[in-house]
Amino acid sequence: MDVIESIDNLQVQDPPGEDFCSADLDWVKLRSAERCDDVALIPYDRVDAFIIGECSNVECPTRFHIERGRKRPKGSLKEYKNDEYLEYRLYWCSFGPENYGEGGGTLPSRRYRLNTRNRAARPQSMRGCTCNFVVKRLYARPSLVLLIYNERRHVNKAGFVCHGPLDKDAIGPGAKKIPYVCSEIQQQTMSMIYLGIPEENVLEKHIEGIQRYCGSDPKVKTLASQYVQKLGMIIKRSTHELDLDDEASIRLWAERNKKSIFFYRDTSENEPLILGIQTEWQLQQMIRFGHRNIIAADSTFGIKRLKYPLCTLLVFDSREHALPVAWIITRSIAKPDVAIWMKSLLDRVRSVNSGWKASGFLIDDAAAQIEPIRETFSCPVLFSLWRVRRSWLRHIVKKCTNIEVQREIFKRLGQIVYGIWGGMDLAVALEELLLDFVDQTSFMQYFRDSWLPKIEMWLELMKTLPLASQEASGAIEAYHVKLKTKLYDDSHLGSLQRVDWLVHKLTTELHSSYWLDCYADESDLFQNVKEDYIASTSRYRALQIPDASVSLDENDQLFAKVLSQKDSSLSKLVWNPGSEFAHCDCEWSLQGNLCKHVIKVNMICGNMPRFRSSLSFQSLKTILMDIWKKPMDDSVSLDLSTAWTFQILDQVQNLVEFNDFNSIGLVVNNMPLKWAAKQVRTSPRRQSQQPPLPGTSENSATNKSGKRKRDCVSLK
After folding, report:
1. CA 699 from centre of chain
2. pLDDT of residue 683
3. What integer is the mean pLDDT of 668-694?
4. Is 230:170 a contact under the CB 8 Å cutoff?
């Protein structure tokens, strides 16, 4: 926008059409000693057309009233400047400037404020809008008007849209007649709109939800239709850019959404941004599924493509699907920074449930800070191999064209991981790998640059920490793939370097998707959504494959064949069966994912003695053997070590039995009986020495306490 210091050379604009608005004018900055305003010059007889056009703003329909006005008679000034006024009028949006809702409840929004001369008539329409402009009829040129726009946006002092379709707090005219819409119905409607479900289907489900509270009423359908249309328009026109500056936009979002933030630290010269997001629904899921259960972290999403990496904390629901319960946006992995947001998150959870406790914390990055996790959550830390496996497989498929070479490299890398408990010489194993596949220059260059400097650290952590199961790794990977699909859409690639866009996508589309998935699973209202949600993990899809569809190579045990359930003439080959580093030729696996064929084959191989155990079981076995180490002498230390070992083995055995049986009654019947001793009085019961009152029988006196008890119950 051009900056001028005088209006002498300002061009007069007269847009065509009956009405016009500020968008039809070319504005320039007029600099003065005090301020710099947007100005434009129009004919005096087009002022009414401009005001009508501004009132017809689609995003913020309103009316403008004259807040202040002054007028001079012609010839009253002997000396004057080129911008002196003959007539001066300050037009203000009729939803301001006062805000009668400060400190109170949400005020209903109206399209325009009636009776603008008497503000006491409609005080509820004053919402603190700061939109205003000045119409100055020039003293030197009375046929022209200088428009000065002080604030073009319809926002309040905090910078938030305060009325109109874009106002999330507005409930529209006639609010008293609108049927009750609880937060559950509103979230359901919003989720369906965010997911792109057709409006007629959204309206049908919305009316069904309202009728549960209001009954059947013809007026409900009309009002519900208006509500759905308005909510859809708000969502369609909503934007992540609350300000052109990304940091300022995040500040505005954080100010408005304090209930969805558990920790926020703005960017400064010495401290990076930390934004911890957790909605009310996510908090309830963390309390519900995270208590006495595993918390997992997808810790380094978008480290190369996003402005700030995203860390997601996950819990496993009743179907063992990974649910996001907190998002942390920061590039800092320093111990003090990690500790401060973890403590804030735990404090928020325990403010609702003081007894909440996690049984374990699952990490997927060897560079993650383990001490803050142990100090804050006071629980064991586990490690998941899903990120290592996915990264290796994706680059092998991408950089090696020969499928036989692909599966052989992947198998050798798996042998290196399995060898951490067998006394393997890591340097020798890596040297042999580099020499045997020296012709695969593209992958080997990637491996040297990305993994060779840090592979020893990763393998040492795998050896030190318990390893997570394949089911947990698959659930985390399923969330990661869904997150990647939502965020890395081609239409949004230009917004990846804005934090406000990332926050908007997480709290709208992704949050709505998981909310609707869980709601459909528990309410049976959306069968298609429920079926897709249940089948979203590879383990569930693997369980649908019959054992008879899997055949193993009896001679060399090099591969397994899995028949297709849709077409029995088709099959998939799984090489290196029984290993987490098995290689399948299906499309899903070639994208680096853990496919259903690999999981199914490994489930069958796990019950066969000729195949080695899974990495998670070998890790558990190593930990148990370390606990059960024989001391130097036959002392009480040996007894204590034995007791610890058998206690853990008993818990594992009970868990295995519980998962194997279809009925919990069979598990209960196999448990040992526990006799409870009947409590006996240590002294004889005292007899009441007080005689009964006159006119009462012994029975009535005896039942006196019982009657009093019934009276108390009736009073309740």
Report:
1. 65
2. 45
3. 46
4. no
CA nearest to 597, candidates 643, 538, 650, 654: 538
Q: Which of 666, 329, 322, 629 is nearest to 501 (CA)?
A: 329
Report the distance separating Cα 267 and Cα 662, nearest Å.
Answer: 53
pLDDT value, residue 194:
79
Asked if residues 37 and 30 have their Cβ atoms less than 8 Å apart, the reply is yes
Closest residue by Cα to residue 348 from 368, 374, 323, 326: 326
- Cross-strand bridge partners of residue 627: none
Q: What DSSP designation does 264 have?
A: E
Q: How confident is the model at residue 653 (pLDDT cuts 50, 70, 90)?
A: confident
Q: Are 262 and 346 in contact (CB under 8 A)?
A: no
Q: What's the rounded mean pLDDT across residues 454-476? A: 90
Comparing CA positions, the residue from 531, 529, 502 lying closest to residue 514 is: 529
Total count of residues recorded for the chain: 716
What is the model's pLDDT at position 627?
66
Closest CA to 345 of 442, 276, 288: 276
How many whole angstroms separate alpha carbon 231 and alpha carbon 214? 20
Residue 200 Cα to chain centre, angstroms: 27
| Nearest partner of 247 among 323, 302, 206, 307, judged by Cα | 307
Note if the pTM is more than 0.70.
no
Q: Let me know: does 308 contact 499? Beta carbons within 8 Å.
A: yes
Q: Do 291 and 507 touch, CB atoms closer than 8 A? A: no
Contacting residues for 650 by C-beta, under 8 A, at least 6 apart: none
Percent over 90 (pLDDT), the chain: 26
Strands of the sheet containing 28-31, edge to edge, are 3-4, 28-31, 36-43, 144-151, 132-138, 85-93, 64-71
Q: What 3-state DSSP class applies to 98? A: coil
Stated as kind and residue range, the H or E segment containing 616 is helix 615-627
Contact 648, 624 (CB under 8 A): yes
Note the pLDDT of residue 214. 56
Interatomic CA distance for residues 239 and 503, integer angstroms: 11
Residue 339 phi, psi (nearest 5): -65, -35
39 within 8 A of 28, measured Cβ to Cβ: yes
**Taking a C-beta distance cutoff of 8 angstroms, is the pair 349, 433 a contact?**
no
Please give the C-alpha separations between residue 206 and each of 193, 232, 572, in angstroms, as whole numbers. 11, 13, 44
The answer to whether 562 and 549 are in contact (CB under 8 A) is yes
Side chain identity, residue 447: F
Rank 115-119, 196-200, 571-575, 622-626 by mean pLDDT and report only the highest.
Answer: 571-575
Distance CA 108, CA 170 (A): 6
Q: Is 147 helix (H, G, I), strand (E, B) or coil?
A: strand
- Residue 340: its pLDDT value, please? 95
Q: Distance from first CA to last CA of the chain, Å, rounded?
A: 72
Spatial CB neighbours of 433, under 8 Å, sequence gap ≥ 6: 409, 412, 413, 416
Reduced to 3 states (helix: H, G, I; strand: E, B; else coil), residue 68 is strand
Tokens of 468: 């997570």
DSSP letter for 571, please: E
Beta strands in 278-321 (DSSP E): 294-301, 310-316
Other Cβ atoms closer than 10 A to 340: 17
